[in-house]
From TrEMBL:
The lineage of its organism: Bacteria, Bacillati, Bacillota, Clostridia, Eubacteriales. This is RNA polymerase sigma factor. Pfam families: Sigma70_r2, Sigma70_r4_2. Residues 99-151 form the RNA polymerase sigma factor 70 region 4 type domain. It comes from the Bacteria. SUPFAM superfamilies: Sigma2 domain of RNA polymerase sigma factors, Sigma3 and sigma4 domains of RNA polymerase sigma factors.
């Protein structure tokens, strides 16, 4: 890979930090995940295969580090919704509806929540999300279908 580390940060840093905020939902934890991801990228850059897209590889590292931190902490509940500054949620909904939706996403089981974040908030295709998560495309579609069903139920109750 010919790009220098600073070029990677310039090109992908903002989007990566947004992903970290979506996953962690607390600024301190997101900053830690962000920095840990870049350290891992530098350590593993020899394993990156030239010709493959860089961003899915970077995202896979970030998501795997996030999952590892959950396993280490045995955290199966999600961190409280705070510090979430940006999302790709439709601008046509009101801020109250947006907060309700983000809160409902935060209550999803981890497997479903990560798929929703990657596809609906980070803009990855189902195929790209499948590669990042190590699933089949149908596996991602199944998780998204279950997540939409749970979100619909949660939002109808409100």
């Amino acid at each position: 890979m010919a790009a220098a580390p600073q070029e990677w940060v310039d090109a992908y840093g903002t989007r990566l930090f947004g992903l970290c905020m979506h996953l962690c939902r607390q600024r301190d934890a997101a900053e830690e995940l962000y920095q840990e991801t870049w350290v891992r990228v530098l350590m593993k850059r020899d394993s990156f295969r030239d010709g493959e897209p860089f961003e899915p590889w970077l995202t896979r590292i970030c998501v795997n580090l996030y999952r590892d931190s959950l396993r280490r902490q045995r955290l199966r509940r999600f961190l409280p919704l705070s510090g979430l500054e940006t999302t790709a949620v439709s601008p046509q909904i009101s801020s109250d509806e947006r907060l309700s939706l983000l809160d409902a996403v935060g209550r999803l089981p981890d497997k479903l929540r990560v798929a929703v974040i990657l596809v609906y908030m980070q803009g990855y295709t189902e195929s790209q999300a499948a590669g990042i998560l190590g699933l089949s495309v149908n596996g991602v579609k199944s998780r998204l279908l279950r997540a939409r069903k749970l979100l619909k139920e949660a939002l109808v109750d409100e």
